[in-house]
Specification:
- The chain is mainly alpha-helical.
- It is built from 5 helices and 4 strands.
- It has one domain.
- The longest helix is centred in the N-terminal third of the chain and has 56 residues.
């Protein structure tokens, strides 16, 4: 009887040990997957934010000839930085042409998610409001200065005071001046705008389900 009891006890111990090892392995298998997903989602969010920051810091002058003024597309502000709460309404999203909203609309958000997204947009708008305002004011001053110089060059060309070659040389200098000055303006606000956008993208990630976030990233990046 003692031998039989001992064998039973050993068998039971083996079963318990096997179960414990199995649970441990399962835990080790599940935990890294969750961690990996979190790391992946964070990396995707950072990549989206970095892309917007790079776009913002580009300073490319458009136009700039005898008839057209120099300018930067959308005052030098990327689409991602000018989103506001009023881009949403109860019937859907007004700015369907905006890539962010176009991608979000495909996800069939619940009413609760839409409400949270509106709140996130409101916070994002407030976060960047001062910097966007200051950027635009600085941009207007820059555009006015460059345009006055361009008009002066045009007048000199048409009055025969400078040659066409001299005019083109002067316009090239103005273009360079515009781009350098615009880049300087952007450096002043880039850090704060990027931080605000990061908070907004983090909020978006938290509002969406895992499936929705994956679909959003595939659409938006």
């Amino acid at each position: 009887m003692k031998i039989k009891s001992m064998k039973t006890a050993l068998a039971l111990s083996a079963i318990l040990l096997f179960a414990a090892v199995g649970c441990k392995k399962q835990a080790e298998t599940v935990a890294p997957a969750t961690t990996d997903n979190s790391a992946l989602f964070e990396a995707q969010s950072v990549a989206i934010v970095d892309n917007a920051d790079e776009t913002y810091n580009d300073a490319i002058a458009l136009g700039g000839n005898e008839t057209d003024a120099f300018y930067a597309d959308n005052d030098g502000l990327p689409e991602a930085y000018v989103m506001v709460e009023t881009d949403m309404d109860d019937a859907g999203f007004k700015r369907a042409d905006n890539r962010y909203f176009a991608c979000i609309k495909k996800l069939n958000l619940s009413d609760t998610q839409a409400m949270k997204l509106r709140r996130a947009l409101r916070a994002y708008e407030a976060c960047k409001a001062a910097d966007i305002k200051a950027h635009r004011e600085a941009y207007v001053k820059l555009s006015t200065r460059i345009e006055n110089s361009r008009k002066e060059l045009v007048a000199q060309l048409r009055n025969g005071k400078i040659t066409k070659a001299q005019f083109e040389e002067g316009m090239a200098k103005l273009r360079k001046d515009f781009e350098i000055s615009l880049r300087y303006i952007k450096v002043s606000f880039a850090k704060n705008l990027k931080a605000c956008y990061y908070k907004f993208m983090s909020a978006t990630k938290e509002i969406l389900t895992e499936r929705q976030w994956k679909a959003f990233v595939d659409c938006y990046r």
